[in-house]
């Protein structure tokens, strides 16, 4: 590894220039006007992989292209699928950026640009580590497949269509994704669990049009009143969801997990200060980290009804709608939750109101065993690169592609995040620590060595 480590040190500036070059491409997948730029970013990634000697395809789809590349297979060694994305969120609001969002600027040791941490910088750590192996050792101790898409920020529609029909091409023993965060500065983490999600839009309709609230109020059902009454039934003052059967499949938090979470240096006061709130809320009987990571939740995400303009207009609205989501823990079935929700709403919907429930999207939660040899290998690699062992955390967010990989490939995912939770992901002045960029490259290089010590599954 000495030659490889020397290469990593000598090519630090080259690796940074590569990152800056990719960050200058405004690959906003949500914008039709940016379609040529998204294609250019995909081509950039494909060209880099081809230039490293990998067998590479730039796969056309109905949306943005998918980049697939692979190294030669290795007898008795595991195959690793590295997933990432080259598309980015829109940079709005532009006025809040301290420098142009697509002109990478280094400030306080961070590169500031849209896509810096989500996900161009983190994804490139694995590209650069493979490049280093091939340039110094000539081959890898495992086979690596890259699957880099251009639609993650808009739902990965093309990838979800591609995946079921290409399971042989994508077959692997484990998936590696770096698109998450460390627990804190200088505290690397392996995320071994993700919540699932069930997202809905509820629309209630009353009269054929908005009515005068004085003339008709008290005689005609008000959809806005009905909506607030229904939503208030969803959760009690103990923070528990009231949908019948909601908790039937929830696995209790293990004592080992509660002890591990309690040992983490989490400061609730600093957490509240950072969010500028004076109190925390949630299900009674659980800590803040437990509520965020291992307990299911309900949240209203948007409300629409009645007059929204300046001044007063006394209307009884004809309709009211709410978008809301349940974050689910592993073993909860989104389909069962949706069926129970429909029955609950029909039972409590007041007379004079018509109800429509749209299921927007859903994905079950996932958890990876901490006894996995792949988790142990990742922990060793991270310890070597960051000079401290990683902590093991779960995440309240959902990454549907992780569930898709388990469903179609039968493979668990290592979520190895090099970012920080204050990197302003999706917001103005997105950043990524250059020191963590290089530590991520080094950890990735060590990971291939550690995984090479594991015999192929089955």
List the helices and strands and how they pair.
Layout: H1 2-10, H2 12-23, H3 35-51, E1 55-59, E2 66-70, E3 79-85, E4 105-107, E5 110-112, H4 116-136, E6 143-149, H5 157-162, H6 167-170, E7 174-177, E8 189-194, E9 196-205, E10 211-212, H7 213-216, H8 223-233, H9 255-263, H10 268-275, H11 288-293, E11 297-305, E12 315-316, E13 319-328, H12 334-348, E14 354-363, E15 366-367, H13 373-386, E16 391-395, H14 400-409, E17 412-417, E18 431-433, H15 434-451
Parallel strand pairs: 3-6, 3-7, 7-17, 8-16
Antiparallel strand pairs: 1-2, 2-6, 4-5, 5-18, 8-15, 8-17, 9-13, 9-14, 10-12, 11-13
Helix pairs in contact: 1-4, 2-4, 4-15, 13-15
Q: How many separate domains make up the residues?
A: 2
- Please describe the biggest sheet, giving its number of strands, its sense, and whether it closes into a barrel: 9 strands, mixed
Give the C-alpha Rg: 24 Å
Helix/strand class: alpha+beta
* Backbone shape: globular
Oligomer class: single chain
What is the number of helices? 15
Name of the top-level CATH class of the largest domain: Alpha Beta
What name goes with the CATH superfamily of the largest domain?
A: Zn peptidases
Distance between the termini: 29 Å
Number of strands: 18
Low-confidence spans = none
CATH architecture assignment of the largest domain: 3-Layer(aba) Sandwich
């Amino acid at each position: 590894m000495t030659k490889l480590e020397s290469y990593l040190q000598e090519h630090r500036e080259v690796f940074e220039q590569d990152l800056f070059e990719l960050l200058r491409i405004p690959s906003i997948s949500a914008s039709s006007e940016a379609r040529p730029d998204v294609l250019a970013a995909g081509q950039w990634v494909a060209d880099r992989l081809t230039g490293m000697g990998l067998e590479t395809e730039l796969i056309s789809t109905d949306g943005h292209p998918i980049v697939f590349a692979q190294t030669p297979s290795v007898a008795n060694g595991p195959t690793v699928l590295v997933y990432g994305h080259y598309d980015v969120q829109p940079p709005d609001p532009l006025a809040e950026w301290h420098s142009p969002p697509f002109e990478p600027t280094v400030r306080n040791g961070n590169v500031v640009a849209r896509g810096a941490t989500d996900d161009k910088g983190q994804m490139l750590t694995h590209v650069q580590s493979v490049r280093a192996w091939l340039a110094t050792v000539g081959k890898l101790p495992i086979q690596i497949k890259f699957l880099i898409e251009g639609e993650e920020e808009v739902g990965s529609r093309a990838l979800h269509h591609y995946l079921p029909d290409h399971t042989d091409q994508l077959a692997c023993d484990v998936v590696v994704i770096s698109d998450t965060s460390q627990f804190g500065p200088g505290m690397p983490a392996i995320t071994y669990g993700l919540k699932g999600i069930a997202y809905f839009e509820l629309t209630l309709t009353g009269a054929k049009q908005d009515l005068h609230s004085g003339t008709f109020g008290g005689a005609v059902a008000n959809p806005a009143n009905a909506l607030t009454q229904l939503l208030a039934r969803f959760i009690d003052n103990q923070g528990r969801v009231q949908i019948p059967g909601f908790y039937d499949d929830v696995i209790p938090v293990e004592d080992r997990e509660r002890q591990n979470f309690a040992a983490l240096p989490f400061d609730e006061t600093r957490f509240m200060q950072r969010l500028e709130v004076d109190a925390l809320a949630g299900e009674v009987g659980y800590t803040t980290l437990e509520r965020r990571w291992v307990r299911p939740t309900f949240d209203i995400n948007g409300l629409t009804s009645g007059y929204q303009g300046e001044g007063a207009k006394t209307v009884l609205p004809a309709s009211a709608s709410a978008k809301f989501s349940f974050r689910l823990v592993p073993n909860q079935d989104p389909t069962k939750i949706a069926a129970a929700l429909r029955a609950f709403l029909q039972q409590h919907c007041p007379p004079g109101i018509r109800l429509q429930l749209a299921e927007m999207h859903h994905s079950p939660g996932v958890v990876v065993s901490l006894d996995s040899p792949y988790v142990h290998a990742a922990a060793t690699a991270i310890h070597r690169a960051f000079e401290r062992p990683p902590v093991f955390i779960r995440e309240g967010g959902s990454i549907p592609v992780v569930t898709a990989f388990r469903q179609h490939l039968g493979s668990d995912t290592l979520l190895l995040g090099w970012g920080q939770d204050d990197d302003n992901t999706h917001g103005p002045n997105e950043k990524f620590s250059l020191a963590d960029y290089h530590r991520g490259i080094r950890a990735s290089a060590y990971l291939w060595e550690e995984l090479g010590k594991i015999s192929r599954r089955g």
